[in-house]
Write a structure and sequence with these properties.
By secondary structure, this protein is of the alpha+beta class. It is built from eleven helices and 32 strands. It folds into four domains: 285 residues, TIM Barrel (Alpha-Beta Barrel), CATH 3.20.20.80; 116 residues, Immunoglobulin-like; 90 residues, Immunoglobulins (Immunoglobulin-like, Sandwich); 82 residues, Immunoglobulin-like, CATH 2.60.40.2550. 19% of the residues lie in helices and 31% in strands. The strands form seven sheets. It has an eight-stranded parallel beta barrel, surrounded by four helices. Helix 1 runs parallel beside helix 2, helix 3 packs parallel to helix 4 and helix 4 packs across helix 5.
Length: 618
């Protein structure tokens, strides 16, 4: 029996899903948290970072980031910083400045916020606050900021002791009460307790990762995800208290933490640390030997935008108190997170209303063994014959069919999935392709004689060139052409390529290989097509009057044909080459040299007769 999607789930309301199309990038560039507020490096170092972030900004936007946290911004920032903020704004990135309220001498939120807004145009703030700062006083200060005409898109509050005692939740409830339920914009708090659970899940092999379900602010307090920002790492996590393996240590391998934060849209607005994103390319000393997580994070954000954004419900399928059954063939139940998101109101779900819902399954394996299990799922949106497709291409079960959980079940209600050690996968209900984030977007437009390839490039920084690759009838991809960049650097570019070496009936797949000046490359998503069938339509528009007749031929291609006139005995008496052009072709046939009688006009092309009509020479 199918049950409604209710148990161990979080409900925002039928149409209210968390606006998680926003993603925050936060990092430490020209200064560090232990430096004095507002301190800046020497001018050469500052100029390097300003230029570096300006060049990278199109990449941030293309990946899906909508906001960027910058450290130690002050109203006295030099001109280079002001120019950087302007460039980031032009790329559609909201700049978030840090505001320190721990010392009265630094000024209130409204005072510091107004100064930052007047000097730099910044109107979003991440606040480092005293743990016991009264909520009513903060609400009054926030209202004063709004009265000055400054409406922050983001205003996020944190406390220096990382909220180990849970005081932030009480503070937030009191703040919302003081502001009023209808007050906009809504303030947010960092979810430090979820971050600590994820730190343990990633670093402690004895930790039961299912405790993550019961650790987030949203799960434990029912505080709306609209008021929460989630995080894995942050510049402040540097083991500043010199205590090993505690709350302010960085997560050394945070990929699985991000897999959870970027797929569970109910728990809060995700943030990503710059050092984790770029790894050794971040230019941060402590990340020099780290592998970048950029490709994984870009893919997860793309999956989120298409299949998860606006999902209103999540069910923790393998939680200890879940009513859903799990059977583990390998791997450890204490080292896996398996959950399901409804897909009715997501962008993909709304696009496939006639084909059914697009629920999402996520499995994250924190264990050192392959996770292989049969998991009962919620079948509210699922029917017999349904299946799930892995859009990450990281699982060992690309297609997960709906099947009975055991031999006693009359109806299918479970899926079998396999995930490698220390990995994750995301399955989407129904047919789906692997999500391949790329700055190259390719379209293939078919014609009878050629395929027109068009691709858009979001930005051309460091691009050396583009290779056009084609696969015929599921064969290997082979290069068929190449084009140089337009050298637009941080601007978009458009390209056109015609593939004329094609044959009717071929199944063609294309992709663009972008090669950069450092020898790296990325592929566009694959575009699949087949040549359009050649089509000729004929119409006799003027029957013979005395010595001629006229017919119209409409074609969807250009080529050559042959007009042949036969007598009543079937013998050819006249032949004439005919050029075929796209569109309407009007042909007048001279019959003056023929004797009176019955004749047949036939048009030959592509080695066969395509049209025949009878005419009478009067």
């Amino acid at each position: 029996m199918r049950k409604p999607l209710l148990a161990t789930m979080l409900l925002f309301g039928l149409l209210s899903g968390l606006p998680a199309q926003d993603f925050i990038l936060q990092g430490c560039y020209w200064s560090c948290p232990e430096d004095a507020p507002g301190s800046l490096p020497d001018s050469a170092t500052l100029e390097f970072w300003v230029d570096h972030l300006t060049v990278q900004s199109p990449e941030f936007t293309h990946a899906g980031f909508t906001a960027i946290w910058l450290p130690n911004l002050t109203a006295q920032a030099p001109q280079q910083v002001k120019k950087l903020i302007q460039n980031l704004n032009r790329q559609g990135l909201t700049v978030i400045a840090e505001v320190d309220l721990r010392q009265d001498s630094l000024g209130t939120l409204s005072e510091q916020g107004t100064a930052l807004n007047d000097a730099l145009g910044v109107a979003s703030f991440s606040i480092t606050d005293r743990a016991h700062f009264p909520a009513e006083a903060f609400a009054a200060d926030f209202k004063a900021l709004l009265e000055r005409g400054i409406e922050p898109k983001f205003i996020i509050r944190g406390s220096p002791d990382f909220d180990r005692s849970g005081q932030q939740v009480r503070w937030m409830r009191n703040t919302l009460k003081a502001l009023g339920e209808k007050a906009l914009p809504k303030p947010r708090i960092y979810d430090y307790q979820l971050r600590e659970a994820l730190r343990k899940a990633c670093s402690d092999t004895t930790y039961d990762v299912r405790r993550v379900y019961r650790s987030s602010i949203r799960d434990t307090s029912a505080l709306s995800g609209y008021n929460i920002v989630t995080l894995a790492n942050h510049p402040a996590y540097k083991n500043q208290n010199a205590q090993p393996a505690d709350y302010d240590n960085p997560i050394e391998e945070p990929l699985l933490a991000y897999a959870y934060l970027l797929t569970n849209n109910q728990i809060g607005l995700p943030s990503v640390f710059y050092g984790d994103y770029f790894g050794g390319d971040s230019e941060l000393v402590e990340y020099a030997e780290k592998k970048p997580l950029r490709a994984h994070i870009d893919q997860l954000m793309a999956i989120h935008r298409q299949f998860i954004f606006n999902s209103t419900l999540v069910e923790y399928l393998n939680a200890t108190d879940s009513g859903k059954r799990s059977a583990y063939y390998s791997g450890d139940s204490t080292r896996a997170l398996v959950f399901q998101l409804e897909g009715n109101s997501t962008p993909a779900g709304l696009q496939s209303r006639t084909q059914g819902a697009r629920d999402v399954l996520v499995a994250i394996n924190f264990g050192s063994d392959t996770l292989s299990l049969r998991q009962e799922v919620n079948t509210s949106n699922i029917k017999a014959g349904d299946y799930f497709t892995d859009v990450t291409a990281q699982s060992l079960s690309q297609k997960a069919m709906l099947l009975p959980f055991d031999s006693l079940d009359a109806e299918p209600s479970a899926v079998a999935v396999r995930v490698p050690p220390r990995s994750y996968a995301v399955w989407v209900q129904g047919r789906a392709q692997k999500i391949t984030p790329s700055r190259v977007q390719l379209t293939a437009n078919p014609y009878p004689d050629y395929i027109e390839l068009n691709w858009e490039v979001a930005y051309e920084r460091k691009v050396l060139g583009y290779q056009v690759e084609r696969s015929v009838n599921d064969g290997p991809f082979e290069q068929i052409g190449q084009l140089p960049p337009l050298a637009n650097e941080n601007e978009s570019a458009s390209f056109l390529f015609l593939d004329k070496d094609i044959f009717q009936g071929e199944d063609l797949r294309y992709r663009i290989k972008l090669i950069d000046k450092e020898g790296r490359f990325e592929f566009s998503p694959v575009a699949q097509t087949t040549p359009v069938q050649r089509d000729l339509k004929f119409e006799l528009i003027e029957a013979p009057e005395q010595h001629s007749c006229t017919f119209k031929m409409k074609s969807n291609y250009s080529g050559q044909g042959q007009l042949v006139i036969y007598d009543a005995n079937g013998d050819p008496v006249f032949e004439q080459p005919q050029t075929i052009t796209k569109g309407d072709n009007i042909t007048r046939v001279d019959l003056s040299r023929l004797d009176k009688g019955i004749y047949y006009l036939r048009f030959h092309a592509e080695e066969r007769a395509l049209w025949s009509t009878k005419v009478v020479r009067l």
